[in-house]
Structure to design on (107 residues):
């Protein structure tokens, strides 16, 4: 894995520093949704069935991120490592896709 992936923010990694702030905000929000979905799917693979049900109850009642994180931290010992791994995996994939696009378009 490219060490830059760990250190660079996603906007810089993609070379989008000149993008208008409003568009950056929209892009970050969409990428956050994707990463959150990936993390959730991975965690659902790990959780016991009864814990999955409790997790769904939390989501349905729109529990705060703090509540959700507290619940998950109590159930999954390496939660931070899983979250970090999924974020890094996403950044790597998006950086590779951006590089392919640059190669194809010659930009």
């Amino acid at each position: 894995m490219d060490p830059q992936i760990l250190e660079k923010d996603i906007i810089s990694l993609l070379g989008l520093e000149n993008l208008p702030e409003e568009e950056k905000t929209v892009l970050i929000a969409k990428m956050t949704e994707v990463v959150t979905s990936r993390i959730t799917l991975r965690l659902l693979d790990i959780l016991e069935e009864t814990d999955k049900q409790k997790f769904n109850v939390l989501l349905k009642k729109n529990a705060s991120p703090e509540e959700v994180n507290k619940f998950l931290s109590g159930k999954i010992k390496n939660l931070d490592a899983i979250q970090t791994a999924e974020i890094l995996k996403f950044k790597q994939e998006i950086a590779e896709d951006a590089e392919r696009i640059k190669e194809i378009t010659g930009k």
Summary: Residues 79-105 form the longest helix (27 residues). The CA atoms of residues 46 and 52 lie 9 Å apart.
